[in-house]
Specification:
globular; single chain; 19 strands; eight-stranded antiparallel sheet
Length: 348
């Protein structure tokens, strides 16, 4: 199984507007659109000003890049770099790649700024509730099971060491289990953006699951536009439309990835403090940031925090944030001042 099975391979809560990527073949003002599957979700790359003859080779390079990312970060593959670290019971520094060091460093920084709401060490809880490689539980985990899993978590038990061009991860709990699913889509989207740059492509929109990043103008000479999905199981229902202006965007939502257990809806978003899936009114958090990785980390932390705490963090950190909140008679939205500069339209 793949890294991002956490989201069950569904198209996440950020959708590309089809009008931007119309697929009429060979037209002068049409984007070249490539698509595929990776890490339990879908990837999509739209590029402008690129000869369609490059499509086969470009698709191959994209898939190879994503496969390499999966071998790095997957908790579903026992031989991935992350799985080997998790399986080790050593508390000595563990050598890792620069890419692994970067994603963990960013995750730890966001974790600290969200008071550990975004916690990449909650793998034991993710697995306990059935959103990791292990099977879904037959019965709701009891408090003793939850506390046992929580005892194996904590950002304070993980650190990154950088010295003389080398990088290591170190844990002081032998059974610490790092799960990077919450930031994997953003990481992969950024890596695809860098691949486009290496290929000499300066006008693109790339997405991996719910993480998107763009550069330049689309094939019609206009800004790439992205739609934030309404909190519904229906595809292509837009709540708001934004122009990323070269930034990354990611949305975390509690309304798509869940299962039913003993008559209750179990969300994949787990609160590290309680060890349980969230149950508050915030159903969607969208973040626009300089990179898709950052956006992917922040949206998870804000979802865990809930409406009021998420607002406070967004304002304190100067984040571009868009929240969708469940009310008794429908939904309301809130956006930070920084988000308004990206907003093109909002729908009721």
């Amino acid at each position: 199984m793949e890294l991002l099975r956490l989201r069950y391979g569904l198209l996440a809560a950020v959708l590309l507007l089809s009008a931007c990527d119309s697929a009429a073949p060979q037209a002068t003002k049409q984007a070249l659109v490539l698509e595929g599957k990776t890490m339990g979700t879908y990837w999509r790359v739209s590029v402008a000003g690129v000869d369609s003859a490059r499509a086969p080779a470009l698709r191959k390079k994209i898939q190879a890049q994503l496969d390499a990312d999966d071998r790095l970060l997957s908790t579903w593959k026992p031989d991935s770099a992350l799985s080997r670290f998790n399986q080790s019971r050593s508390t000595a520094p563990w050598p890792v790649s620069e890419a692994m060091s970067d994603i963990v460093t960013t995750s730890l920084r966001i974790g600290r700024k969200t008071d550990s709401a975004m916690d990449i060490t909650i793998g034991p809880l993710v697995n306990l509730w059935g959103f990791g490689p292990e099977k879904q539980p037959i019965n709701t985990p009891d408090q003793a099971q939850i506390e046992a899993a929580r005892a194996l978590t904590g950002l304070e038990h993980l650190r990154v060491i950088n010295s003389a061009g080398q990088q290591w991860l170190q844990k002081d709990l032998p059974a610490l289990y790092v799960d990077l699913s919450t930031v994997g889509e953003g990481f992969a989207a950024d890596r695809l953006a860098r691949l486009m740059e290496r290929e000499g492509i300066s006008r693109y929109l790339v997405s991996v699951g719910g993480a998107v990043t763009t550069r330049g103008l689309n094939a019609e000479g206009r800004a790439w536009r992205v739609a934030i999905q309404k909190p519904t199981d229906r595809e292509n229902a837009a709540q708001a439309i934004v122009d990323l202006n070269g930034h990354g965007i990611s949305t975390s939502g509690s309304y798509r990835n869940y299962y039913e257990l003993n008559g209750q809806r179990i969300s994949h978003v787990i609160d590290p403090t309680t060890g349980r899936p969230i149950q508050h009114r915030l159903v969607s958090a969208t973040v626009i940031a300089p990179t898709a990785l950052e956006a992917d980390g922040w949206d998870t932390g804000l979802m865990v925090l809930g409406v009021e705490k998420a607002k406070k963090v967004a304002l304190k950190e100067g984040l571009a944030v868009y929240l969708i909140v469940k009310e008794d008679n429908g939904f309301t939205t809130w956006m930070s001042p920084q988000f308004t500069s990206f907003l093109l339209s909002e729908k009721n």
